[in-house]
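Need tokens for this chain, all 215 residues.
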Amino acid sequence: MAEAKIIDGKAFAADLRNKVADQVHQLKENNNLTPGLAVVLVGEDPASKIYVQNKNKMTLEAGMRSFEHKLPADTSQKELLTLIEGLNNDPEVHGILVQLPLPNQISEQDILTKIDPTKDVDGFHIFNAGKLATGSDGLVPCTPLGCIIMIKNQFDGDLTGKQALVIGRSNIVGKPMATLLLRENCTVTIAHSRTVNLQAEAKRADIIVAAVGRA
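Here are the structure tokens for all 215 residues:
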């Protein structure tokens, strides 16, 4: 049995950001187009605030425009929908990201389905989720896409026949991660809180993606 290896995501991400910055520069030079990302944060969730700060920083470092919308925790669903409609119609905004979780008075599903699918950079809209599930081209959730890029890099681009274990079954990471691995011709097992003998599943896997919030 081969020794387990944890992939260093930080170094890989730095290289990827440089490549994105080069592509953004080419867009500006050749098409006079500067990509714009709108990030919406509702409330004061500490983790969400950090995520949004980092997204803003990385967006600007890549040469793109960043449009931050920070709303109070008591924002109504109607107010948020009005903002999203405006972003959908704004030609300078090419991507929209609504930071989750949202306050209890707002339905996450209602909000996500109102984002223009062509601007849904998180890939959470049912249109993009359906495309992913059926093998069509669409926008893919960021975390699973980043994982699949790193994993393929470790195996020289070919994952055919690998045994893959995804721990977690959320719509945000677990399920799309499993689908992306299937696309790469892996044999995929999804484990979760009701899985019996997780250790045995992990021992037979060539690839393990832990998509849960606790050890």
